[in-house]
Amino acid sequence: MSILLSIIYLISTVTFIVGLKKLGHPETAKSGNSIAALGMGLAIVGTIFINDIEVPTIIYVLIGLAILVGSIMGWLIAMKVEMTKMPELVSLFNGFGGASAALIGVVEFIGNDNIAGTEATIVSTILSAIAIGAITFSGSLVAWGKLNGSLKSVVKIPQYNIINNLVIIGIVAFSAFMVITGTDSQILLYALLGAGLLYGVLFVLPIGGADMPVVISLLNSLTGIAAAITGILYDNMVMLVGGILVGSAGIILTVAMCKAMNRTLGSVIFGSFGASAVAEEGVNKTLGTIKKTTSSDTAIMMNYAQNVIIVPGYGLAVAQAQHVIHELEEILTGKGVNVKYAIHPVAGRMPGHMNVLLAESNVEYSLLAEMDDINPQFNNADVVLVVGANDVVNPAAHNDPASPIYGMPILDVENAKHIVVNKRSMKAGYAGIENELFYNSKTSMLFGDAKDALTELVGELKGM
Amino acid sequence: MNELIEFISNNLQITYILILATFVGIEVIKSIPAVLHTPLMSGANALSGVVIVGAILVMLHSDPTDYVALALGFIAVVLGVLNVVGGFAVTDRMLEMFKKKK
Predict the structure, then answer these.
(1) Distance (Å, rounded) from C-alpha A389 to C-alpha A397?
(2) Which residue range forms the structural domain that includes residue B76?
C-alpha cells in the first residue's frame, strides 16, 4: 500500500474519532458530522485512485457508476424522508451496510481458488463477515418493517429464546466446521448466508415496536463489527478502526438508550416486558370511570389558564401532529398563556426523537423542558395536555411495585390542576398496562387522532 | 485456542489497535445527552458504511471477465454508498433543525 494512501487513511481515522466526539455535544454535533463525512469521502477517493495494481478502465467506470447510483439514491431518500420516519430510515441504511459486508465476504470466498490452503484466520474473518452482515441485513429489514407498520404483530414463536440460541450456536459451529475442513463448497457458503439471514429475522421478530430503537442501535453496532472484520481481511486500518469505533460506541449508545427507557438490554432482547403485561389485563374495572371532554371545553379551559404544559408522546409522532401542536402553542402564547413542553427522555419513537420533531416544526428550543426540570413545575400548571403519551405519565411507576414499569422515571402530570389526555382510544400503551391517570378525577379524556383533535382545538381557540 | 494465540502473535499490531479503538469508542460516547441519541445513532450508522472501502477493493481486484464477482461487488458498492451518503445527509438534516432555533 502506498504511503500516501496510508496517510489518507490515518487522516480519515482521526476525522472519525473527532467527528464522533463532536456528535456528542449539542453545539458541535453538526460540524462533527461534516468532519466525519469529509474523512469518509477522503478514504473513498483515496481507495479508488491510489493503488498499485493494473485496473482496467471498465472497472473504474463501474465503480464510478455504482457510487453515482448509490449517492443519488441515498441523497434523495435522506432529503425526502419525514422526520417521524427517522428510526426506520436509520435501520434501512444500516441494513444496506450489513448487506455490503456480507457480499464482500461472499465474493472473497467464491473468488478464492484455494480455501483449503488459506490461513484459517482469513477464512474465519470471511465467514464471520458473511454471517454478521447477513444477520444485520435481515434484522434491520425486519426492524424497518415493524417501525413503518408493514409488519404489525409481535410474533412470538413458543420457546423462541431457546430456538434463537440454538440457531446462533448452530451458525458458530457450522462456521467452525467450514474453517476446520477448509471446504470450498459454495452450497455450504450459501447455507451459512441463509442461516445468518434467518437468525436476523428470528432475533428481531419477537421484539416489540417500542423497543425497536434499542435493537436498531444494537444492529448498527454489529454492522460496525462486520466492517471491522472486513478491515482485518484487507489489513485496512480505516475500516478496522472505523468499524470498531462504531461497534463499541454503538454498544454504549444501546445501553444508554436502555437506561433512558428503564430497561435492561436482556429484557429488550428476551422480552420479559410483554409477558407480565398479559397478567395485568382485566383489573381495569377497579379503576373507576373515565370522563370524556370535547375540544370546545378544552379550549375554554386552556384559554383561561395561566400555565399550560404540553406532554407530547409517541401518538403525536405517529399522527404527525408536531406542526399543529406548535400552532396551538403559538395561539396560547398570544393569549398570554405560559406554555411549555415537557419532554420525557424517551418521548417519540426513540430517545431524542421528540426534540428533533419539535425542532422541525420550529418550536423554540427554550420551551422544551427536560423531565427533571419540569417535574417540580406541574404543581403550578393549570392545564396539562397529554398528547399521545401513556406509559411516561403512568403514576403506577411511582406507586405500584407490582407494575412492570415500576421505577421508571415519569412526568408527574397528576400534580397539575387539570389534565387533558388526547388519545385515540383506551388502548394501553406499549407496556400493555392500564393507566390510572385516565381515571383520576382531575383528568378528562379527549379522544381522537392527535392531529384532528389538535386542529379542532386550534380552531376553537382561534374563535375565542 | 491455538488458533487464537497464533492469530494474536501474528497480528499483534492489529490486536492492539482493536483493543485501543474499542476503548476510544466507549470514551468518546460516554455521557451523551438523550437529546442527541437519535442523531448520534444516525451518525454512527453512516460511519459503519466504511465497509464501502472493502467493497471498492473487491471491485478493484476483480477480473473484468468475472461477472459474478463484478456484479456482487457493484451491488456492495451501491449499498455501501447508500449507507454512507444517506446516513450523513440525514444526520445533517436532523442537526440542522436543532441549530436553527438556538
Answers:
(1) 14
(2) 33-102
* For residues A442-458, average pLDDT: 89
User: A391 catalytic, yes or no?
Assistant: yes
Catalytic entry in A211, A372, A391, A449: A391
Strand ranges (E), B4-98: none
CB contact under 8 A, A362 and B55: no
What pLDDT was estimated at residue A275? 40
What is the value of pTM for the model shown?
Answer: 0.81
Among A21, A75, A248, select the one facing B89 at the smallest CB separation: A75
For residue A261, what are the CA distances in angstroms to A84, A310, B70, B91? 19, 20, 45, 23
The CATH class of A286-462 is: alpha beta
Scanning every residue of chain B, which has its alpha carbon at the shortest distance from the alpha carbon of A345? B34
Instruction: Compute how many other C-beta atoms are within 10 angstroms of the C-beta atom of residue B16.
Output: 11
Q: What region does A292 belong to: left with phi over 0, alpha with psi -120 to 50, or beta?
A: beta
Residues B40 and B22 reside in one and the same domain? no
3-state secondary structure of A159: coil
Tens-digit pLDDT profile for residues A145-168: 888 877 766 666 677 778 888 888
- Give the one of B33, B51, B64 whose C-beta lies nearest to A101's C-beta: B51
In this complex, which of B28, B38, B68 lies closest to A351 when CB atoms are compared? B38
**In chain B, which residues have their Cβ closer than 8 Å to the Cβ of A346?**
34
Cell numbers found for residue A421: 389526555
Same domain, B48 and B82: yes
In this structure, are B40 and B67 located in the same domain? yes
Mean pLDDT value across residues A114-135? 88
Length of chain B: 102
Average pLDDT over chain A, rounded to whole?
85
A412 near A285, Cβ under 8 Å? no
Question: What's the mean pLDDT in A73-100?
Answer: 90
Rounded CA separation A129/B18 (Å): 16
Query: CB distance B64–A56 less than 8 Å?
Result: yes
